[in-house]
Design a protein that fits this description.
- The chain is an alpha/beta fold.
- It has two domains: about 1-115 and about 310-325, ATPase, nucleotide binding domain (Nucleotidyltransferase, domain 5), CATH 3.30.420; about 125-305, ATPase, nucleotide binding domain (Nucleotidyltransferase, domain 5, 2-Layer Sandwich).
- It has helices at about 35, 45-65, 85-100, 110-120, 160-170, 180-185, 210-225, 235-270, 285-295, 305-310, 315-325; strands at about 1-5, 10-20, 25-30, 75-80, 105-110, 130-135, 140-145, 150-155, 275-280, 300-305.
- The strands form two sheets. It has a five-stranded mixed β-sheet with strand order 3-2-1-4-5, with helices on both faces.
- A hairpin with a 2-residue loop joins strand 7 and strand 8 (about 150-155).
- Helix 4 packs across helix 11, helix 5 packs parallel to helix 7 (about 210-225) and helix 7 (about 210-225) runs antiparallel to helix 8.
- The two termini are about 30 Å apart.
- Bound molecules: 5'-O-[(R)-(carboxyoxy)(hydroxy)phosphoryl]adenosine and zinc ion (ZN).
- Zinc ion binds near residues 279, 280 and 312.
Amino acid sequence: MRVLAIETSCDETSAAIVTSDRQILSNVVVSQIDEHTPFGGVVPEIASRAHIRYIDSVIKESLNKAKCSIQDIDAVAVTSGPGLIGGVIVGLMAAKGIAAATNKPLIAVNHLEGHALTVRLTDDVPFPFLLLLVSGGHCQILIVHGVGNYTRLGTTLDDALGEAFDKTAKMLGLGYPGGPQVEKRAKNGDPNRFPLPLPLCNKVNCDFSFSGLKTAVLHTIESCRTAPGVDPKLTSQDINDICASFQQTCAKVLNNRLTHAISSFKEQAPTGTNLVIAGGVAANKYLRKTIDELGKEHGLDVIAPPLNLCTDNAAMIAWAGIERLIAGEVSPLDCTARARWPLTDMTPPDSG
Ligand code: KG4
Ligand code: ZN
């Protein structure tokens, strides 16, 4: 089976062709970074308009790269939520149009399920597995029992981890998206120079909170600026040290929360042997390494998708669509777009 997939839930316009025997024939991703950089973050209205501008050419390019015509496609998968609703609607309408015109089945996919199942495309990881899902909009730990079958062990009470990276970068004037910039600067920084709080780490659960950490970063920046005899501007070394301290703190928080999650996972899903990291923040090599060490200590294999499949892309939507199509699911052509759609509510989207 060959599936054309479309992803437009945030600031990447993407289309991919993936086969049910795990070949990614194409995965075209057009980033809107240039459009959003002047504003220091994603502007939903600008994102929707950019998706409209790019969508046709991105779909055409995905077909060309895969050397396919639309007739060679067996189904159309599309992100129908959660995400910025204007963008989701652009992708969903394009997918519905193609499905209606070609009489191919449509499959509406939850964006988070796309991230969650990507390792089954790249590494054929069996169910059940423990999942750390860390992106710009989400920070959750789940047990993945099967397609559409998730138990959430913990979530963030405020900001997502990617958001905390983005806000830290913004406060330091590092540009958008912040995660990769913070990781780069942290490489030349002293992670122990600035002690930062470890939110919720005294609680025996798997929840997260990053807003206090963000405020602590702000206070740290201000303390550097007002140090006696120091230029009011941060030095490059100050920036590196703040990034390294922040990133190390995030690693400690993740490891603390995951330690609790691993015990629950071993109790609730004793046959599972894999800890999967997914979502844009999973592209961070430092965090991947620290989680890898934690997994080893607890006898779990830690698996993360290749870097280009961690951040938003349509290949992951194609794969989640394939898993659902194989299970016999097809979506109605009047299915709705959803701004919010938790993984723990995996009923298919309602008809319009
Ligand atoms: O999954 P994703 O592409 O989009 C959402 O669904 O949110 O994740 C984007 C997030 C952004 O917050 C970005 O700063 C973060 O992932 N990110 C990183 C890295 N690369 C992307 N965070 C930390 N380190 C990275 N290397
Ligand atoms: Zn995402």
